[in-house]
Amino acid sequence: MIMHVFLAGASRGVGREIAHCLAAHQIQVTALLRSTAAQAELEAMGIRVVLGDALDPSAVEQAMQGEPIQAVISTIGGLPQDGERSDFKGNKHLIDAAVKVGVSKFILVSSIGSGDSVVALPPPALQTLAAVLKEKEQAEQHLIASGLTYTIVRPGGLKSEPATGNGVLTEDYRVAGTIHRADVADLVCRCLLSDRANGKVLSAVDRNMFYGQPEFAEFKVTETA
Question: Using the 8-state DSSP alphabet, how is residue 112 labeled?
């Protein structure tokens, strides 16, 4: 049973949506934030906030001390911070700390275009995203090699509109498309509570907004925890 989740990336985007989803499931959450900007909103949701930078391994280890953590969810990445991206290094520090404290499950939110899903994106997109996708792939490989029980979720292009309820997962790495952030969060929460998602690398798109592979098998997540 997932009782306590450590969430990195909750200040914005998919991470913020995941925070709302976990709170709705009444799951205890500790959120790692680099600044206090989102602290009040998260605390109002009943989420415990710890301040620290994922690029600082000692800060990450310190943040995970205390009450046992059953699962870690990371959505961190994006623009370089002081010349360093967090897509690989930040996630590496989270993964390494999770191993040390004995976390049961780690969910990494990555991106379509990482790893074997590179074939799903058109060349112009790959050229634009090459640097970040390389780091996301490194983070994925580090997680797979860590020995942790993992799920990797690779969303397509992200939109900020309300959830459509049409978000789907697939093991077909050739699929690309777009998806609303709130729908990604819903899928991640389902993976958290499902043993069936363990050890899987899954692409996430809206079933009405995909392109590339014309037909693909949906990966059904059933709650088991």
Answer: B
